Amino acid sequence: MPIFDLPTMQWIASTALTLASVTIAVVAATFSYRQNYGWKPVVLVLAQGFDGPKSTEDDYIAWIDFEFWNRRKYPVVVHLVEIKFGKLMLDHPGETAPWYIFHNKLIHREHVRFDPASHHRFEPRVS
Q1: What is the per-residue pLDDT for 50?
Q2: What pTM does this model have?
Q3: Of 95, 101, 106, 115, which is most buried by a Cβ count within 10 Å?
């Protein structure tokens, strides 16, 4: 006497194949949408650090280098970049002109336009 009869095995097989085909359809639809409109923009942190003073007159310098990549198929504009360096008390934004300090955050409010498939590097320094 068999453990499973034929109709039960057919039901299990058809259910498994239906679930597999629905999964493949969802993945294909997601990838086709992304190929038409592009993927989400991404921010990549390239380097970060905290440099001590080189002499008694210098300040400590905190810095972070990051890139914004537009992976969309249309232009994107970044209106605001806000960076908070943990509990570090910020004094002045160093030599980086478009950056300023407000409530212990380093802020960049210049509008930066990114063409499709382009990127821009930000290098803020703060002391």
Answers
A1: 81
A2: 0.66
A3: 106
